[in-house]
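1st attempt posting a full record on here, be nice pls
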Amino acid sequence: MKLQISSANVEKLVHAAAQTPDVEVCGLLVGNDGAVQDVVMTTNTAADPSRSFEIDPAALLRTHREARGGGMAVIGHWHSHPNGVPSPSARDAARALDNGQIWLIVAGGAVQGWIAQAADPMLMAGRFAAVTLVTD
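the predicted structure (as tokens):
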């Protein structure tokens, strides 16, 4: 699978992760038809943001509503990994749903794309297939 995302949005994600390197920062991806139109920054409401992320529920609902109003949808989310590895963790795999949502993981100055699938030992962390990011 390929996902179109502007280099400006990639830079926005890398910058956000670099600003708080000791915690996972997170947000939502808004777009349609395999293209990210906007990246939304949200608050990480996890009990331990240095080890996991939870997107603020109010921001999630608001972003879904605003996306629909603009003819788009929330197509996934993004988060950073303070450990510097932009690959899904076991914790990510445990929380992932096989729902077609995109996962962008930011770490070490890089952004990698993933899509959760049904459990399969051949996939990354047993749940994720790589998504090729296409930038302008």
